[in-house]
Amino acid sequence: MDIEEKLRILSGAARYDASCASSGCGREGPSRRIGNTSRAGICHSWSDDGRCISLLKILLSNDCRYDCAYCVNRSSNPVPRASFTAREVVDLTLEFYRRNYIEGLFLSSAVLQSPDHTMEAMVRVVEILRREELFGGYIHLKVIPGCSSELVRRAGLHADRISVNIELPSHASLQRLAPQKHKQAILEPMALIGREIQTSLTERRTSRKAPRFAPAGQSTQMIIGASPETDLQILRLSQGLYRTMNLKRVYYSAFVPVNDDNRLPVLAIPPLMREHRLYQADWLLRFYGFSAEEILSDDAPNLDEAFDPKTAWALRHPEFFPVEINRAEYAALLRVPGIGVTSAKRIMAARRFCPVTPEGLKRIGVVMKRARYFITCSGRPFEKPDRPPVMLRERLLLGDGVPETPPQPRQMILSGLFT
Amino acid sequence: MQHYLYDGTAEGLLSAAASIIETDPEPGQATLAVRQDTLFEEGLFLRTEEGRAEALFARLGEVAPDARHTLYFFMLAEAAEKETSLLHYVALAFRYGDRVNGYLTHDAVREVVFLSRKAGRELQRMKGLLRFQQLQDNTWLARMEPDHNIIQPLAHHFCRRLRAQEWFIYDAARRSAAHWDRKTLTFGTLEQFSNPVLSGEEKAVQAMWQSFFRTIAIPERRNPRLQKSCMPVKYWKYLTEKQGE
Fold it and tell me: Contacts from A8-12 at CB under 8 Å and sequence distance 24+?
């Protein structure tokens, strides 16, 4: 099999991994022959599905002994199988890097013999890149659940980011859809990585020569819509992961049906809107000081598809508003729909020169079509106060006139049936 | 309110701004423009003084390093009639220090900050979208046509990143070029540009990248609108993965 054919099979098999971040870690210095990383991360291209490409995202092998219901590479699927040698991955990475196609490598793999065997091969690729080729670019390495902690440690010493996929949002779903995988085997390496990162950070505070362990942190990913969990359950899980395991990111991946399996739901299109709303809620958890219980409750455990989670929260809490732009604290500004982290910081900075005017708010970049219902500016409201909530919902949904875009079709369209 | 003129060079602009701030009691009221040499033009012409531009940058760096950074990117940005905004911005920066960048409700500050951010964003974008090709003599060439004149900071980025290869970056819109010979970085202009011969393996690697680009997209999530908004079509001309579309 030639290398281009392998690349086609093994990148096609890796595309369901959501993470493509290349940020969080700066590396410079003449000790590297080729490459550096930039703290902000760099996107190199955007594929036809609109997702950014910054890493060469491939599997080392798609030959798998597991038979997970949702996975395109499961052992019962009759797909072509291929495996790279370590050298092939290294050469491909370097050739692409020299042409500035990529920021680095994202390496994952299916498991054929044993987790240890697969993980050993993956770590070997990374060690060649770092030690023999002196490659300074970004490396994201998947950890295979069930591999030895020694291999996890070696992975963390060379990769910028390592991640263990949690796959599904609950233990019950994991048992049903991926019976050969075990919750404990996933959570153990996560906790280990969290501890190692913490130790390395502490040691580096006293000595700059102490080795860095996964300097860009650890992330994970779960599939949304393949199992019956509510959004509240999912957000609680993410919140727990951020708080206890010290994760940098949780990725949500809308379930794309690639297999026929009676354990899986039948969907016309992937639940992309739900995925989008979950990411918005995830941002509220990490940057806006919200908790999962504030965003959702047991009575309404799913995110509203019509409103973003912050607007939905604001509509449920009229007592919090209006917020006075020229006096409110930073945390209160952050709760206003239409004001994000950047705008809130800009308002705080601009207030030091003179009171912010309605005109100034627009210049700062506040989305007035949402914010106008929730703020006052030097005591003056933009809208009549005490608007009934129902009317407010309508205005927020429709804007001042007609809806901007027609609602997306949610029903499957069978082409050719009626034509 | 005084009207000033300068010779139209970048050096002249900064030199003029420096001398207005030193001599004019109210630089915030003054205006500055390029001399057109028409008969009825009014205004005081300021001659470009050697070294004054650097001195201004150095002085600004002491009181307001962020503002200096903003000013640098503002100078790279392509925009007509940006002189007066620059003058007012620099005057404010000397008065308020780095806090000036928060004064977005001021027209001049807003124009300078937003335009410099535009140039900065294009630089960040180009760091990702620039594509090098290997030539027959084992040097590397990348071509681009950016909106703003970002070749200098871009070249500095790549001499840290692709340290071990000899490369050229060519800005086809401005006919300017950067050259890294593995030791030093030089800039120049090119009057003539002819397409050089590619190395033997270049086409094969490009084909692999193109096939990676096709298979990495999930067909069920196709979203060309999102793709175009993240990666505007104006950059596709030199993108390896977008050739032949």
Answer: A8/B211, A8/B212, A8/B215, A9/A62, A9/A79, A9/A80, A9/A81, A9/A82, A10/A58, A10/A59, A10/A60, A10/A61, A10/A62, A10/A82, A10/A84, A11/A57, A11/A58, A11/B212, A11/B215, A11/B216, A12/B215, A12/B216
Domain boundary among B97, B120, B143: B120
Total tally of structural domains belonging to chain B: 2
Range of the structural domain that residue B188 is part of = 130-242
Which residues of chain A make contact with B128, given a CB cutoff of 8 A?
42-45, 54, 100, 103
Q: Which residues of B touch A356 (CB under 8 A)?
A: 105
Query: Which residue type occupies A328?
Result: A
In eight-state DSSP terms, residue A162 is E
At B109-145, the pLDDT tens digits run 999 999 999 999 999 999 999 999 999 999 999 999 9
Label residue A365 left, alpha or beta by phi (over 0 means left) and psi (-120 to 50 means alpha): left
Rounded CA gap, A365 and A358, in Å?
A: 11
Query: Does residue A336 fall inside a structural domain?
Result: yes
| Same-domain status, B76 and B183 | no
The confidence band for B2, taking pLDDT boundaries of 50, 70 and 90, is confident
Strands (E), B70-204: 132-134, 140-144, 167-171, 176-180, 185-189
Range of the domain at A356: 317-398
Looking at the structure, tell me whether residues B113 and B196 fall in a common domain: no
- Check CB contact under 8 Å for B211 and A33: no
The average pLDDT across B85-93 equals 94
Q: Are residues B115 and B135 in the same domain?
A: no
A349, B104: Cβ pair inside 8 Å?
yes
**Total number of domains in chain A:** 2
* Residue ranges in chain A whose pLDDT is less than 70: 29-30, 385-387, 398-419
Residue bearing tokens 């124009």: B111
| Chain A positions in Cβ-Cβ contact with residue B226 (cut-off 8 Å) | 46, 49-50
The predicted complex's ipTM stands at 0.91
The answer to whether B231 contacts chain A (CB < 8 Å) is yes
CB crowding A20-32: b at 16 or more within 10 Å, else e = bbbbbbebeeeeb
